[in-house]
Amino acid sequence: MADGEIIVVPFHGSGHIFPAIELSNRLASHNYRIALLLPSNPSDVSLHPLIRIVEFSMPHPPGFPPGPPQPSSSTSSPSASPSGTHWSSFADFLARRFDSDDPSPPPICAIVDVMMSQLLDICREFEIPAVSFFTSGACTTALDHAMSKLSTEDLGPDRTVTIPGLPEEMALTSQDFNNRPGHPGAPPPMFGPDHGGPPPHSGPGRGVVRPFGPPPPFGPGHFGGPPPPLLPGDDIAPPPPPGPGHHGGPPLSPRRGPPPQPPFGHGHCDGPPAPPTSAGSGPHPMPQLRPGDGGAPRPPPREGHDHHPPPVPGHGHFAGPPPPPFGHGHGCRPPPPDVGAPPPPPDRIGPRHRGGPPGTSLADMESAIAFLFNTCDDLERPFLEYLKKETKKPVWGVGPLLPAAFWSAAGSLVHDAEVRPKRDDSTVSERDVLEWLDSKPRGSVIYVSFGSIVAPSEAELAELAAGLEESNRPFIWAVQHRALRHDPRGFPVHTDGSFSELEGLASRVGGRGLVIRGWAPQLLILSHGATGDFLTHCGWNSTVEALGCGVPMLTWPVHGDQHHNARLVTRRLQAGIAIKSGSESVSKNDVVGGIERLMAGEEEVRQRAASARAIFAGGFPRTSSASLDAFLDFIPPLSDPKS
Q: Which molecular-function annotations from GO does this UniProt entry contain (predicted)?
């Protein structure tokens, strides 16, 4: 078993917590201890024995529903107070990890959700190497990063601009610039100070590495057991702005010399790199959708760090000069962060303070030493390659991070109740859903869901209801109780999951329609043979679940990364068609036309969706298994816990 422990810090909400749990399980299967910080203990989720839950309350943006895991104190560590200094509490948590009387293993690395990037610099204060974890796909980050360096003046005569190094079919359009937070035509941000984002800069973590004291006296009994109670606090600290020429955070601690090289020298991929693409070399080829394409067999789990390969001469982890040394090694205990330091000058405040999601641009993650994405090379190789080149840091696709039961099902039915926490907030049981699906012809059902966070306007939902009624095709419509919609001014508003047009829909269509208010067993629905089409907002988890089940998509993005995901599906993978792609409202005719086009025609789209499913026919992608191995090889072992 490896010395030390990996700390995993997810953002709240099921779309972030579930992938973090699956990532933790996969890391633990490589004999690493994991400390998973969650607001409560998901007692009915399968966890590897090497994972311990630390109940820890992080800031919760107003209007966002809490994650599904339910609290339980049976196996969890003490929790921080939900009120108080959340960022300071995290600093206190790390400080206590270096106390001589703390029985828990020393931290060797922290994996921090991209939405929690304020914590990266706190990790740096403690010389704990930190990695940014993206629960979304790589195309969104790549396109957003490219767009951050452009303006509408860069658009060509056709109002598009192709990004060198990215597929031509993913060219940016004027609508992409209009959707950017802060643009006059964009909807108000879901995050930011007015919607749950961080306030103006204050508190610890401004990127100044202060003098460090002697290493902590790791004594006997240091391993195992929960940490002491966490202290409350309320100081929120965004990360520092990038400095000129700064290549990011420090490399991993050189306590034993340079970290071992991964089994391949090109960052994220487990084989030879893709051929270089220049601005004028044409589009990337369409992905060859073959099972396990491009992957090497996954090595068996190995004990401790004996599996590190020797360094490969002439190969490095970075595509450019490495960052400056980290300091005295990540086993040193720094003084408490200075919570009273002044904020940075206004002109250096990052993009998240101009209306974007908090801390989600690459500039906000300068302190991260690598990036992990919830995707795989088979789906998004050119985007991972682009990000590796742009960041000059390791970039790995380690997903899709779906439940293990999904991968072992091998094309058979997946029961959500067996792989995810049980939910009581549903008007229809999983058993009733299964019986309803069993009564429908193969490939005949339209599944409609916009996820748990956002939904179209009430006017558009009325058009959707009318379209489903007129289509005369069987459908399941999952309507979330607390999803946010936008009022006539474009601002998000709370809803109770009901609206007038929905009330009579079920009675008018009879047994042809099934309306579910609240949680829906999505994996069951998508993996059932009766489901022939998924009308989706293109949240990343929903997107990869549909691809994994071979279900073609009708794309209706609502907010944020959903627009890029929809384009990946319709243009790059060609596994769906768009109902909505611009700023125009969706009409009943759009809904009916899209359904008929996909259900009665577009055979090539259905074949492409089936080909996407073939990628995952052999289980978890071998490319992602190799990437996880490379990431763990990148983490140096502790030479001596007492040093």
A: UDP-glucosyltransferase activity
Cα–Cα distance for residue pair 576/572, rounded to 1 Å: 10
Residues 505/414, Cβ–Cβ less than 8 Å: no
Nearest partner of 327 among 213, 247, 218, 206, judged by Cα: 213
Does residue 91 carry a pLDDT above 80? Answer: yes
pLDDT over threshold 90, residue 210: no
In this predicted structure, the answer to whether residue 538 has a pLDDT above a threshold of 60 is yes
* 190: nearest Cα among 61, 345, 90, 286: 61
Q: What is the pTM of this model?
A: 0.71
The pLDDT of residue 60 is: 56
Q: Which two tokens stand for residue 548?
A: 């994994």
- Residue in 124, 138, 135 with CA at minimum distance from that of residue 24: 135
Cα angle vertex 453, ends 6, 351, to 5°?
Answer: 70
User: Where do we find the tokens 């996407």?
Assistant: 612
* Residue 501 confidence (pLDDT): 67
Q: What class is the 1-62+87-188+358-399+621-638 domain?
A: alpha beta
- Tokens at 573, concatenated: 């993978």
Rounded to whole angstroms, the Cα distance separating 425 from 362 reads 37
pLDDT at 75 over 80: no
State the DSSP code for 497: S
DSSP annotation string for 50-100: TEEEEE-PPP--TTPPPPSPPP--SSEEPPPPSSS-HHHHHHHHHHHHTST
Give how far Cα 550 sits from Cα of 169, 405, 505, 601, 612, Å.
22, 17, 29, 16, 6
For the segment(s) 412-617, the CATH number from 3.30.390.50, 3.40.50.2000, 3.40.50.1820, 3.60.150.10 is: 3.40.50.2000
The pLDDT > 90 percentage for the chain reads 41
pLDDT band (50, 70, 90) for residue 194? very low
Q: What is the pLDDT of residue 422?
A: 61
CB 20 within 8 A of CB 113: yes
Residue 12 tokens read as 């709240």
pLDDT of 458: 81
In the chain, CATH 3.40.50.2000 sits at: 1-62+87-188+358-399+621-638, 412-617
Q: Which pLDDT value is given to residue 108? A: 94
Can you give the three-state secondary structure of 273-338, one letter per residue?
Answer: CCCCCCCCCCCCCCCCCCCCCCCCCCCCCCCCCCCCCCCCCCCCCCCCCCCCCCCCCCCCCCCCCC
Sheet of 51-55, strands arranged across: 76-77, 51-55, 33-38, 5-9, 107-113, 130-134, 371-373, 395-397
Distance between CA atoms of residues 529 and 409, nearest Å: 14
Average pLDDT for 101-119: 90
Query: Tokens 């998508």 belong to which residue?
Result: 526
Q: How far apart are CA 504 and CA 523, in angstroms?
A: 27
**Longest CA–CA separation in the chain, Å:** 73
Average pLDDT taken over every residue of the chain: 72
Percent of the chain with pLDDT over 70: 62
Are the C-beta atoms of 332 and 212 separated by less than 8 Å? Answer: yes
